[in-house]
Amino acid sequence: MTTKRLQDEHDQSSDGKKEDKRLRKLPSFSTDIVMAESLKSFCLALEPVLRRVVQEEVERGLVHGTRLLQRSPQRQIQAVESSSLKLTFKNPPSLPIFTSSKIEDEEGNSLQIVLLDTQNGEEEPSPAQISSPIKVELVVVNGDFPGKREEWSADEFNDNIVIAREGKRPLLIGDVDLVLRDYAIASIQKLMFTDNSSWTRSRSFRIGARVSPESTYSGPRIKEAITKRFTVKDHRGELYRKRYPPRLGDEVWRLAKIGKDGAFHTKLSAANIHTVQDFLKLSVIDQSRLRMLAKLIVSAWQANVQIMAHEAYLNWDKVEDADGFFAGITTTLIPSIELI
Prior knowledge:
Elements: H1 2-25, H2 29-80, E1 85-89, E2 97-98, E3 111-117, E4 126-127, E5 134-142, H3 154-159, E6 172-174, E7 177-180, E8 185-188, E9 191-193, E10 205-211, E11 222-223, E12 225-226, E13 232-233, H4 263-270, H5 276-285, H6 287-295, H7 302-313
Parallel strand pairs: 1-11, 2-13
Antiparallel strand pairs: 1-3, 3-4, 3-8, 5-7, 5-10, 6-9, 10-12
Helix pairs in contact: 5-6, 5-7
């Protein structure tokens, strides 16, 4: 009997535990109602936000699509558009170019911009005839542009304009705003870079010229001008810059193979030969003395130094009398200069 009673009690206890588990598993109806109301409130609060986000995205997509439709045909037209009018630099800039130094052309003159008409029936384009002044702007262009192509669109040109680094002055300063008048030509009296080109992807620049956005010109497209690519070096390197051809007033160390403050430069200075003009005069008047000065140092590069001076002299009509040796030397005296 005792065993049976214990078994009955155990069965009742097991049934009670199972019932408790079933009761705990049954969800609370009131809790479900609260959760449902909370979820409904959250959705109602989120709905305006979702509507606004969706609306903004749809509007943005429509605007972007409209712009593409408007711009793509224009870019396609520009890509194939050709014009008989183009800007060009009369002469290329003299290289190398240093920061904070005036940019000149290869002949030592100010750079010039010319508007040419390529459909004038002549072999070489001539300056275009313009009825009213045209404003032109000089800009810095990426050295990689336009690659191997000779044609480009205005948008492509504008996309490759290089702007100054943050916190720096404009890259190009001076006469960056020009006006083409009757003869369709403008001189750039002062122009210089304020920063080197080492920080750019191509490590090089070009100088470009375009019709200014502020210009009232409304005729056919005028193709932009660009120079050849070049690097812009820090002005500190100009302290030892050579010139080719050298100029009369240049210090004599500007000639090739004469190092500034070097042995030969010191010997020339001691002999009162300070400028290229002094060097040329001595080469005409007293070649033996110049030869002696050169041989005191080294003879391997004598001919190179003399040839440089000789070629420079070919670019001058005369050498002005600076020390009373003579009134002038004309180019007829060139044959009498015996190269060392």
